[in-house]
């Protein structure tokens, strides 16, 4: 057999072998107390029976492996209790043996998935995620970025279970139930069901361009797709069979994915329906709106770094060991041990590096393809109604069919209306991509708003001194404005993180940036980057476009373009601030080791 690919340095080493299969899932590994809890939930928790089990120290393996005829002989079970206990044990054996499933994940190792999650995975709506790239068009630049939303979602479901179980074991007083655990796992598993083709390129760029008046985000579609998945596959009764209370737990799962169901409820002291305020911390596991520290990021940091070949210095397994729940202002929050503040800064720095080096890489062609194909590419939804790419999100049956496959469908189509989009795809196949002219930033604290007039301003910035022979137009340029931050806009995300100390683990405290003695912390936590591209491949036009771009930077008080290909020595002296002092400052700002960041107002 061929040798397995070695794990990249910096990727978390997932547990291997039997240790990865949680002993909480196997009833034969249950202790006496866990066994008694299960019998009580099954309705056979008579005090006398539970007392006899505890006195005899009966464990899961002892009871499950005991022959049926021996139940009464051991005096653990009375004749009147025998049939009900047997039925409960048989049901438990059947559930565990028949449908528990082990996945061999390249990041987390061998992980065991609850049977209800397996039923959700084995549906067309979830299998759709196999055909949506996790990093969208980044795959056209990074050959290793071939992973999909499917495996990421399974990883998040697994980590959600790990975190909630760790809290349950560490703090039994939190009264975390098996229902809570299962709902958190399902929310983690289904949090990305609503992603469209090429992931964030669809909801972050394509939809705002084609439907600017639509206030839509992929979390909204995830909630709708989850409802569609459950109803179309008739999983309601299956959920009940595993102990879920349908209305309450469905609300809880949807709220973890998309926030409060009723937007007006946000004004109330407790806006959620699925769980009461006493369990507020459960809403911070899958999608943490307080500070961005959640299992979704833990998985995609590890998974994306692994596939991109970028080192990941953040260790989520260590953080699992140092999390607990503390109460602050009558509300419970997940807190981290104070000494782990450096690990959290590593987490947010990893996020920033991934955005800078991979996530924000410009593949504008893909968006242009979808725009040109939008009116002519039809998808059949419920009742035979046809939808465009931009309207398919209105019908979950149509949206289920909308994946990255549109790339190949357009490429191999013979439809005359798709000719323009098809030609762009052929250029991508030939690697005739837009030419990167360079990137710049505002030198002052101001925000540049992306609009159609920006390209016109570059086209009007023809150098007066030694002008190029080529006349360029606005349509020759592509401008991409990227807002880079640490997850909380211009705020330091650690300001919103609660910590606890060894001396008093029950008390939550905050740690200011000044208390973290390190020269490697960023000066500011947000910046704006302007990247400019030329659509034309002709070397003469590209050379002229670079001169236009540099002149535009001078006129608008932007920093010197950060790209080694931008060579215009005859223009450089015109901008005195681009001499050594400013050059050194900007170079320092672009190096991760210094991490000086230029903030911008939002």
UniProtKB/TrEMBL annotation:
<dbReference type="InterPro" id="IPR006674">
    <property type="entry name" value="HD_domain"/>
</dbReference>
<dbReference type="GO" id="GO:0045087">
    <property type="term" value="P:innate immune response"/>
</dbReference>
<dbReference type="GO" id="GO:0006203">
    <property type="term" value="P:dGTP catabolic process"/>
</dbReference>
<keyword id="KW-0235">DNA replication</keyword>
<keyword id="KW-0234">DNA repair</keyword>
<dbReference type="GO" id="GO:0006281">
    <property type="term" value="P:DNA repair"/>
</dbReference>
<dbReference type="GO" id="GO:0051607">
    <property type="term" value="P:defense response to virus"/>
</dbReference>
<keyword id="KW-0399">Innate immunity</keyword>
<dbReference type="Pfam" id="PF01966">
    <property type="entry name" value="HD"/>
</dbReference>
<feature type="domain" description="HD">
    <location>
        <begin position="149"/>
        <end position="301"/>
    </location>
</feature>
<dbReference type="GO" id="GO:0005634">
    <property type="term" value="C:nucleus"/>
</dbReference>
<dbReference type="InterPro" id="IPR003607">
    <property type="entry name" value="HD/PDEase_dom"/>
</dbReference>
<keyword id="KW-0479">Metal-binding</keyword>
<dbReference type="GO" id="GO:0046872">
    <property type="term" value="F:metal ion binding"/>
</dbReference>
<keyword id="KW-0227">DNA damage</keyword>
<keyword id="KW-0862">Zinc</keyword>
<comment type="similarity">
    <text>Belongs to the SAMHD1 family.</text>
</comment>
<dbReference type="GO" id="GO:0045088">
    <property type="term" value="P:regulation of innate immune response"/>
</dbReference>
<dbReference type="GO" id="GO:0005694">
    <property type="term" value="C:chromosome"/>
</dbReference>
<protein>
    <recommendedName>
        <fullName>Deoxynucleoside triphosphate triphosphohydrolase SAMHD1</fullName>
    </recommendedName>
</protein>
<keyword id="KW-0158">Chromosome</keyword>
<dbReference type="GO" id="GO:0008832">
    <property type="term" value="F:dGTPase activity"/>
</dbReference>
<dbReference type="GO" id="GO:0006260">
    <property type="term" value="P:DNA replication"/>
</dbReference>
<keyword id="KW-0378">Hydrolase</keyword>
<keyword id="KW-0539">Nucleus</keyword>
<feature type="region of interest" description="Disordered">
    <location>
        <begin position="1"/>
        <end position="23"/>
    </location>
</feature>
<dbReference type="InterPro" id="IPR013761">
    <property type="entry name" value="SAM/pointed_sf"/>
</dbReference>
<feature type="region of interest" description="Disordered">
    <location>
        <begin position="572"/>
        <end position="602"/>
    </location>
</feature>
<feature type="compositionally biased region" description="Basic and acidic residues">
    <location>
        <begin position="580"/>
        <end position="589"/>
    </location>
</feature>
<dbReference type="InterPro" id="IPR050135">
    <property type="entry name" value="dGTPase-like"/>
</dbReference>
<keyword id="KW-0547">Nucleotide-binding</keyword>
<keyword id="KW-0051">Antiviral defense</keyword>
<keyword id="KW-0342">GTP-binding</keyword>
<dbReference type="GO" id="GO:0005525">
    <property type="term" value="F:GTP binding"/>
</dbReference>
<keyword id="KW-0021">Allosteric enzyme</keyword>
<keyword id="KW-0391">Immunity</keyword>
């Amino acid at each position: 057999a061929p040798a397995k690919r070695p794990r990249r340095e910096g990727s978390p080493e997932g547990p291997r072998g039997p240790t990865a299969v949680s002993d909480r899932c196997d009833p034969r590994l249950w202790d006496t107390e866990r066994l008694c809890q299960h019998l009580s939930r099954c309705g056979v928790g008579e005090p006398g029976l539970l007392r006899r089990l505890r006195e005899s120290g009966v464990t899961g393996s002892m009871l499950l492996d005991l022959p049926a005829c021996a139940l009464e002989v051991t005096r653990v079970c009375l004749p009147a209790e025998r049939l009900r206990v047997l039925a409960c044990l048989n049901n438990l054996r059947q559930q565990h043996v028949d449908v528990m499933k082990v996945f061999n994940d390249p990041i987390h190792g061998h992980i065991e998935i609850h049977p209800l999650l397996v039923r959700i995975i084995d549906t067309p709506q979830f299998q759709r995620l196999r055909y949506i790239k996790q990093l969208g068009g980044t795959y056209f630049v990074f050959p290793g970025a071939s992973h999909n939303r499917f495996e990421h979602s399974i990883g998040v479901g697994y980590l959600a279970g790990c975190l909630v179980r760790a809290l349950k074991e560490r703090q039994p007083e939190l009264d975390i139930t098996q229902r809570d655990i299962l709902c958190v796992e399902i929310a983690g598993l289904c949090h990305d069901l609503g992603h469209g083709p090429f992931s964030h390129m669809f909801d972050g760029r394509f939809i705002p361009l084609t439907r600017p008046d639509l206030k839509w985000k992929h979390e909204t579609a995830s909630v709708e797709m989850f409802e569609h998945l459950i109803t179309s596959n008739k999983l309601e009764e299956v959920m009940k069979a595993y102990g879920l209370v349908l209305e309450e737990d469905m609300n809880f799962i949807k709220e973890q994915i998309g926030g409060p169901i009723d937007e007006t409820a946000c004004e109330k002291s407790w806006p959620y329906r699925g769980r009461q305020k006493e369990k507020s911390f459960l809403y911070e596991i899958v999608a943490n709106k307080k500070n961005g520290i959640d299992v979704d990021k833990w998985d995609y940091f590890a998974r994306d770094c692994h596939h991109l070949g970028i080192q990941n210095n953040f260790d989520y397994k260590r953080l699992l060991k140092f999390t607990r729940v503390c109460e602050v202002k009558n509300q419970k929050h997940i807190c981290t041990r104070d000494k782990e503040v450096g690990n959290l800064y590593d987490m947010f720095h990893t996020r920033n590096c991934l955005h800078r080096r991979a996530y924000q890489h410009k593949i504008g062609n893909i968006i242009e393809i979808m725009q040109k194909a939008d009116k002519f590419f039809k998808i059949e939804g419920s009742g035979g109604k046809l939808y465009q790419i931009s309207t398919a999100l209105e019908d979950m049956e149509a949206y289920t069919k909308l994946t990255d496959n549109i790339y190949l469908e357009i490429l191999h189509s013979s439809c005359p209306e798709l000719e323009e989009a098809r030609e762009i795809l052929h250029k991508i196949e030939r690697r005739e991509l837009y030419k990167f002219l360079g990137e710049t930033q505002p030198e002052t604290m101001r925000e540049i708003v992306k609009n159609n007039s920006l390209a016109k301003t570059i086209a009007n910035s023809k150098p007066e001194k030694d002008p190029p022979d080529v006349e360029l137009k606005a349509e020759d340029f592509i401008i991409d404005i990227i807002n880079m931050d640490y997850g909380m806009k211009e705020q330091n995300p650690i300001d919103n993180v609660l910590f606890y100390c060894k001396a008093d683990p029950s008390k939550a405290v905050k740690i200011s940036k000044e208390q973290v003695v390190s020269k490697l912390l960023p000066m500011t936590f947000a910046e704006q980057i302007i990247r400019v591209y030329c659509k034309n491949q002709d070397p003469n036009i590209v050379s002229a476009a670079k001169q236009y771009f540099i002149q535009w930077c001078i006129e608008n008080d932007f920093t010197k373009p950060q790209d080694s290909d931008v060579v215009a020595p005859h223009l450089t002296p015109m901008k005195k601030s681009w001499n050594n002092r400013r050059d050194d400052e900007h170079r320092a700002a672009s190096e991760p080791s210094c991490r000086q960041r230029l903030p911008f107002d939002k």
